[in-house]
Amino acid sequence: MNPRLNSLQQQAIALGADRTVRDVPSHIRFREARERVGLTQDQVARQSGFPHAAIWDIESFDNDLTACYTPRQLQQFCRVLRIQPADLFGGKLTQPSIPPEELVRLIFEELFNRGITLQQFEDIVGWRLGQCMTPPERLLEDMTIDGLKWLCRELRLDWRRAL
After folding, report:
1. Could you give the percent of the chain with pLDDT greater than 70?
2. What is the percentage of the chain residues whose pLDDT exceeds 90?
3. How far apart are CA 38 and CA 32, in angstroms?
4. Tell me, what's the pLDDT at 91?
5. Which of 16, 15, 17, 18 has the alpha carbon at shortest distance from 28?
6. Was domain 100-162 assigned CATH 1.10.260?
7. pTM score, two decimals?
8. For range 24-44, the mean pLDDT
9. CATH topology for 7-89?
10. What is the number of other CB atoms lying within 10 angstroms of the CB of residue 135?
């Protein structure tokens, strides 16, 4: 390994020349961010209000962060790590972020455009949206990051903009 490269760069190289930096898994990016700010897993756990085991899981399993945590919880982690939430998922955002109120508006616009009910759209998305749209901030508190991904896929949005 080249000592001039950080471990994120080394991981990207190890993934192969055909892989991009965006392909570096979020659990590697999380660990790298923690190491960059000089914190231990215990310190991140204490400062973010989560158990040490949660931080260990996030850094050990690629899908743990998106499958088990909400966008609001991700924001808690990122405040401690001093990064933007989208930084954990690679690539540059070229459009502005989308506030929860706008997401709710886009959901209702999509219902109208498709001529379907909220329940039908929920079945497509795979998430009970009606429970978490009032107030709109609940979208970031009640749904996992994977749920947000599924919603944004149906709205044809880059889900990272909603983080």
Report:
1. 87
2. 80
3. 10
4. 77
5. 15
6. yes
7. 0.83
8. 96
9. 434 Repressor (Amino-terminal Domain) (1.10.260)
10. 11
